[in-house]
Write a structure and sequence with these properties.
Chain A is mostly helical. Chain A is built from 5 helices and no strands. Helices cover 81% and strands 0% of the residues of chain A. Classes of the chains: A mainly alpha (243), B alpha/beta (127).
Chain lengths: 243, 127
């Protein structure tokens, strides 16, 4: 330390001391000015370094707080979102399977009843049917027409429900897209952090605003702005607005 | 009500477009065309011949709200019946859609009966 001070100021101080001893006013003030200027320059360098550090700390803080947000809120939200997707796909699969299982026996019953009628019908067309068999066939045709009509109505309704159950793909797709976006954002934040720690200050990227584009389906357990709970709510709100 | 109306169904998910198209067919509307976002829907609408617009909100490219505003801003399309069929459930969004001039708003997941009721209501009011 002493050596460094000696190297830095030794020469100037000696010259200053010599000028003082010789009562050389001009030389004395020239050396003093040179000393002050050097000291000012050093202070300026220190200050610049301090400002740089502060700026870097602020950038890091901004990024850190975004990362904290991502880690504390968005990542757990993403887990909830994916759980919800799992639930949606599970429910849709079960709903579809239930409807198919309900429809199968109805179609089978109709096919069997139609098949059972074929033999007496053929005898009837060949004019070989016995009168009691004819009466039985007529009763069976009556029952068949009524049952087939009811069963096929039910099958058609079930098919329509199967169709609607596929709507989960739209909802789960929107949720998965949201999670993909989060992963991209997380990646950008982490890459920025790595870059910052390697090469000094960088500004954090802005997150795109979603309001205009839409938020996607509401997820149970994730609190957002006030939302409607179903179609009745929508209807009430709209009729209040005169739509 | 005329079943010859031509519907345009706008949704970025092809499964949802198929579902809506099938439901419309079940309701007797056989003339249905599709688009996957506002940017592809708008030229179809401007080309003419569409009588009823059913649109999703959240779509890449042009979202449904922007499409609705573009329709209302175009003198040739301004009176087009528009039904929003979306999972967007925030009250502020529904108010926003109403202010932009939507004729009906159906929230996903929805039922065939709800879709029918809203279409009938809109057609009843605009005819």
């Amino acid at each position: 330390m002493t050596n460094a001070l000696q190297a830095e100021f030794g020469e100037t101080i000696t010259a200053l001391s010599d000028a003082l001893a010789a009562d050389n006013e001009g030389a004395f003030y020239a050396e003093l000015d040179a000393l002050l200027q050097r000291r000012e320059r050093m202070l300026f360098l220190d200050l610049r370094k301090l400002t740089g550090d502060l700026q870097s700390a602020l950038t890091r803080f901004r990024m850190d707080s975004r990362l904290v947000d991502l880690a504390e809120k968005d990542v757990p939200d993403a887990k909830l979102r994916l759980d919800h997707v799992l639930r949606l796909t599970d429910e849709a699969a079960h709903r579809t399977l239930d409807l198919v299982e309900q429809s199968g026996p109805l179609a089978e019953r109709t096919a069997r009843a139609a098949n059972d009628l074929q033999e007496p019908w053929k005898l009837f067309r060949d004019r070989k049917i016995a009168i009691e068999d004819f009466h039985r066939m007529v009763r069976n045709v009556d029952a068949f027409l009524e049952a087939a009509s009811g069963d096929m109505d039910k099958v058609r309704e079930n098919l329509s429900q199967v169709l609607l159950a596929q709507g989960y793909q739209d909802l789960s797709g929107q949720i998965i897209r949201g999670v993909t976006k989060l992963v991209t954002e997380l990646e950008i934040a982490l890459v920025d952090l790595v870059r910052l720690s390697q090469a000094g200050a960088r500004t954090a990227r802005q997150v795109s605003e979603e309001t205009r584009r839409g938020f996607g389906p509401p997820i149970p357990g994730i609190k957002t702005a006030p939302a409607v709970s179903g179609q009745q709510d929508v209807d009430a709100l709209l009729s209040g607005l005169g739509v | 009500m005329s079943k010859n109306l031509k519907f345009l169904v706008v949704d970025d998910f092809s499964t949802m477009r198929r579902i809506v198209k099938n439901l419309l067919n079940d309701l007797g509307y056989a003339n249905v065309v599709e688009a996957d976002d506002g940017n592809t829907a708008l030229p179809l609408l401007q080309a003419g011949g569409i009588d009823f617009l059913v649109t999703d909100w959240n779509m890449p490219g042009m979202p449904g709200l922007d499409l609705l505003k573009a329709v209302r801003a175009d003198p040739k399309l301004a009176k087009m019946p528009v039904l929003m069929l979306t999972a967007e459930a925030k009250r502020e969004q529904i108010i926003e859609a109403a202010q932009a001039g939507v004729n009906g708003y159906v929230i996903k997941p929805f039922t065939a009966i709800t879709l029918k009721e809203k279409i009938d209501k809109i057609l009843g009011a605009t005819s």
